[in-house]
Amino acid sequence: MKQKIYQIDAFAESVFSGNPAAVCPLDSWLNDETLQKIAMENNLAETTFYVKQGDKYQIRWFTPTVEVDLCGHATLAAAFVLFNLENYTENIIRFHSPRSGALTVTKKGELLTLNFPTDTFEEVKISDEINNCFNIKPQFAFKGKTDYMFVFNTEYEIKKAEPVLEVISKLKARGVIITAKGDNVDFVSRFFAPQSGINEDPVTGSAHTTLTPYWAKQLNKTELTAIQLSSRKGYLQCSYLNDRVEISGQAKLYLTGEIFLK
Questions:
Q1: DSSP code for 108
Q2: What pLDDT was estimated at residue 48?
Q3: What is the pLDDT of residue 160?
Q4: Which pLDDT value is given to residue 197?
Q5: 262 alpha carbon, distance to own chain's centre
Q6: CA separation for the pair 248, 243 (Å, rounded)
Q7: Domain boundaries, the chain
């Protein structure tokens, strides 16, 4: 049994940048064990699967070790595949996630825009456990639906932050966002999720559902520019729409292929 697979660099201005994701278009759902094995074999931060259902596409995302509630860069990658490689002719794609609800992606030229629900988060006390997650201590800490977010003083601190992965992996969360005001963009960030099988994620679209409302309030603006400062770097444009967030970026095709399941 052959299965199509694409690898896309999401939030990338060229190949070998942004965040790579595998995309597998399915005619019908494979069993969960097989989906997880494919993601493990791909060994990318995320593998996304989708199935057409009426005028929508049901979508799911897997790291090499677990299924996750939401993944921005892999959704962008799936939309790129539909728009450019799977003969989808409209300018808006309606996805539905069993875990996160309705998600849309629109196309304007090369720019793809995700429309995701805004995260809800609250400030938490900076405990010893939080202070020990990195070689420097955050100014503030917040807890969202799935992630912690630590706020630091400068972009330089974000660049030079060294994670203590053993400590981070024990937090009861998908992972940890670290962020600061940017020098040349509105804000910068990095994302670490060893408990989800990802030591550092190159670009994390879903983290921007937390970052965007936070920085929109801090900077008193609703249109923001962002860079995720991983070694591959990711470039994002974000819009705060109260209960929704728009996250925009480009994507590039890296490979097409076939998986042999039997």
A1: E
A2: 98
A3: 97
A4: 86
A5: 31
A6: 17
A7: 2-117+248-260, 122-242
* CATH architecture observed for domain 2-117+248-260: Roll (3.10)
The CATH class for the domain spanning 122-242 reads: alpha beta
pTM: 0.89
Asked whether the domain spanning 122-242 has the same topology as the one spanning 2-117+248-260, the reply is yes
The pLDDT, as a whole number, for residue 262 is: 81
Of these residues, 13, 33, 41, 46, which one is catalytic?
A: 46
Residue matched to tokens 């196309």:
107
Q: Is 46 a catalytic residue?
A: yes
Which of these, 111, 110, 113, lies nearest to 72 by C-alpha position? 113
* Residues in the chain where the model's pLDDT stays below 70: none
